[in-house]
Amino acid sequence: MQNSLAGYVLSIMRIVIGFLYSCHGFQIILGFFGGMPPGTGGKAAFLSFVWFAGILELVGGLLVMFGLFTRCAAFVVSGEMAVAYFMVHFPHGFWPINNGGEPAATYCFVFLFLAAAGGGPLSLDQLIWGKKSADR
Question: Which has the closest alpha carbon to 55: 36, 28, 82?
């Protein structure tokens, strides 16, 4: 019974993580959820470094949430979070608890896991490509 539920729990985790991650993209690109900096309603400057990060977060988060090209999208945004951690947080100290990098580190490793595990049974990948994509 445990194994039969594992794929569905994986899918639910993927949906929640993808949704939460895409919210960052909506905030950066469209100014939703208070915009950036938070509370200002502002958006990232077009073609800025932060704007490109926001595009990856918005598009990558939605792809992960819907389970479309899950492995590829998760791998790309895992890398983005690793870059974000080392560029933004690591210069302020080694430990994520002290440098504010816990969310970036957590997203990085959750997305790395999804890149390896795939989207699970409740994904567009599964719907479009069937069992073969789940085995790859």
Answer: 28
